[in-house]
Amino acid sequence: LLWRQLMGGDTIFLTITGVDIDENDTVTFITAAITALLGDWYINLWSIDSSGNFTLISEEDSIPNPKRAHFNKALRTPNNEIVAVGKTLRYIDESMACFYRFSASGDTLATAYYPLDASSPHQEQGA
């Protein structure tokens, strides 16, 4: 163990999903979290360097997570976008597979849920 860094504040981090490690040993990862005070769910993209310094890639709390998505796998594509897949748990009896596509700066480019969620503003519609 080279270092240990706590992510604190008024946030409860529910899941952390690794994306990749670059040539400088900087790790990119996605968190699904809830604020302890307000109970709002959101997604953030982060990086942490080999010295243990965190950088928030996305704007803080800028990716709302109303369906409580959490990711099982994430990777960076050749064009530097980030793709993450997982599932949602909005209610006990509702679980959907989810797909998110993010820009390198953490903007949400697209989301998709199965079964289909037509209410999502980022839902990609099939041809």
Overview of this protein structure:
The radius of gyration is 15 Å and the shape is globular. A hairpin with a 5-residue loop joins strand 2 (27-35) and strand 3 (41-48). The strands form two sheets. Strands 1, 2, 3, 4 and 5 form a five-stranded antiparallel sheet that branches. Strands 6-7-8-9 form a four-stranded antiparallel sheet, with no helix packed on it. It has one domain (11-114). It is an all-beta fold. Helix content is 0%, strand content 46%.
List keywords for this structure.
five-stranded antiparallel β-sheet; four-stranded antiparallel β-sheet; 46% strand; single chain; mainly beta; 9 strands; 127 residues
Tally of alpha and pi helices: 0
Our measurement of the CA-to-CA distance between the termini, rounded to an integer number of angstroms, reads 50 Å
Helix and strand sequence = EEEEEEEEE
Broad shape: globular
Percent helix, as a range, is: under 10%
Biggest sheet layout:
5 strands, antiparallel
What number is the mean pLDDT?
A: 83
Radius of gyration over all CA atoms, rounded: 15 Å
Count of folded domains = 1
Q: Count the E strands.
A: 9
User: β content, as a range?
Assistant: over 45%
Poorly predicted ranges: none
What structural category characterises the helix and strand content? mainly beta
